[in-house]
Design goal:
By secondary structure, the chain is of the alpha+beta class. It folds into 2 domains: 7-113, no CATH class; 127-264, Glutaredoxin (3-Layer(aba) Sandwich). Helix content is 32%, strand content 25%. The protein contains 9 helices and 13 strands. The chain has helices at residues 7-12, 23-26, 48-62, 114-122, 156-165, 183-193, 198-208, 223-232, 255-264, and strands at residues 28-35, 38-44, 71-74, 80-85, 88-93, 98-101, 104-107, 112-113, 136-140, 145-151, 171-177, 240-242, 248-250. 25% of the residues are buried.
Length: 268
């Protein structure tokens, strides 16, 4: 039997939404006659086994059957249940509407990471305060949608995002080079920033693996300033994207999802 080893594995098995609320299946109504022409609806609370069975079914459906729930048990917190998958544990409410997975609060019905969304709100910036003179600019189409991205030349997901961005229309991209992953990252970054055409040199490096020419010793690439900027903004990994409304995206998002975010976060 396979077990969930990380949040990423859990998320890879997510459904977009559960097919229907569970509340109706957890409660039954019994009609009791009191007087002629009078009835009273008595709510019969579900037994623990019924709740646990419903949670098990809902979680397995949410995970598309790729993982089996081994056990469901009550916790000391009223209404919160422990769900065991092998040696891994997640916590689900009695209606299977929300789950805690590795400290993240997940809306099962709408497939939303509520914790991440809230964290992104708290880490929002003032886009207008970004020192765009430290970035190089690339415009595709009419450039109406704007974004800034921090990338490391040795970052695989940065390359994947860069390939996706090349297919997006009507976008302006400000790229901040941020060497974080290795000493070699700094060498590659400096060479690209010292090239005559920074955007072309960077795209060639990220999309084709073509290294830019070795920079002249006299070239003063702003590597130290870029690192200071990254620290001041709390950028600890790449790619990190900032949108005009100040929201950030840390990590890679599939193209369809990213373009939707790009459109929504450009509405000021």
């Amino acid at each position: 039997m396979r077990t969930i080893r990380s949040q990423a594995q859990v998320f890879s098995a997510m459904m977009l939404a559960l097919s229907m609320p569970l509340a109706a299946s957890l409660l039954s109504l019994t009609l009791i006659g009191l007087q002629p022409n009078t009835v009273r609806a008595q709510v019969v609370a579900p037994t623990p086994s019924a709740v646990e069975s419903a949670i098990k079914q809902a979680v397995e459906a949410w995970l598309k059957g790729k993982y089996k729930v081994d056990a469901v048990a009550r916790t000391p917190i009223t209404g919160l249940y422990e769900v065991r998958l092998g040696t891994d544990l997640i916590y689900v409410d009695e209606k299977a509407a929300y789950a805690f997975i590795e400290g993240q609060l997940i809306d099962l019905k709408n497939n939303r990471n509520i914790t991440r969304e809230r964290t992104e709100e708290l880490s929002a910036i003032q886009f207008k305060d970004l020192p765009l003179q430290l970035a190089f600019k690339q415009v595709q189409g009419n450039g109406r949608r704007v974004m800034a991205v921090f990338e490391d030349p040795n970052c695989g997901y940065c390359r994947k995002m860069r390939a996706d961005l090349s297919g997006i229309k009507d976008i302006t991209i400000y790229t901040f080079v941020l060497p974080l992953l290795s000493p070699d990252s700094e060498v590659k970054s400096r060479n690209a920033l010292c090239a005559a055409d920074k955007a072309k040199a960077w795209n060639d490096l990220m999309l084709s693996g073509k290294s830019p020419p070795t920079a002249s010793p006299s070239c003063d690439a702003p590597i130290a300033k870029l690192k200071d900027l990254g620290r001041s903004l709390g950028v600890t990994g790449t790619p990190t994207v900032f949108f005009p409304n100040g929201k950030r995206l840390t990590g890679y998002a599939p193209m369809a999802q990213f373009e939707k975010m790009l459109e929504e976060n450009n509405k000021l």
